[in-house]
Predict the structure.
Amino acid sequence: DQQVKQNSPSLSVQEGRISILNCDYTNSMFDYFLWYKKYPAEGPTFLISISSIKDKNEDGRFTVFLNKSAKHLSLHIVPSQPGDSAVYFCAASKAGNNRKLIWGLGTSLAVNP
Amino acid sequence: ETGVTQTPRHLVMGMTNKKSLKCEQHLGHNAMYWYKQSAKKPLELMFVYNFKEQTENNSVPSRFSPECPNSSHLFLHLHTLQPEDSALYLCASSQPGTGGNYEQYFGPGTRLTVT
């Protein structure tokens, strides 16, 4: 039973436009959420995170929005650049239990010039 | 450069071989992790070490044997693997409990093929 779901396996966006990647979770005990980016033949790279006490966190072109009532978060990339083309993973964790990260399957983003 | 290195980057081994994967982190973190990434599956946590002590074994078969001699080094010893163990093995580290930041930092991974 997957607790973190990224329902879109892939997304294609034009350079300069907004990319929106979505993530849903089922466990209401999750209180910390992270986005990672992964290029082929590399490990995942931490991108941005958000605590459940917030509903928005922004870092440059990247903004994460959290809707706790809907158990939904999204990553917005504005403006999208070709170098953003990668697989994006959503992960969630809860207090205790070694603070394990529970991962989604990832969304492959292609930003076209 | 993420501060976490893994060797080798690629490994092909037969089912009767014994090999080891190595991970080293240069970030001063106290926790280290082994993950397995297979096609079309989420990242699977295998082992967690905190301050050199194993705090989690996620029902991993005994043909995978971790070793953590100190907080900077982590090994995964492999023996009598099966073809279905072919995957990307990722090492990560983190500094738990520091102001609510729970990010893990990953190495580039070892692409393992079992023949």
Observations:
- Chain A has a mean pLDDT of 94.
- Residues 18 and 78 of chain A are 5 Å apart (CA to CA).
- The radius of gyration of chain A is 13 Å.
- Chain A has no helices and eleven strands.
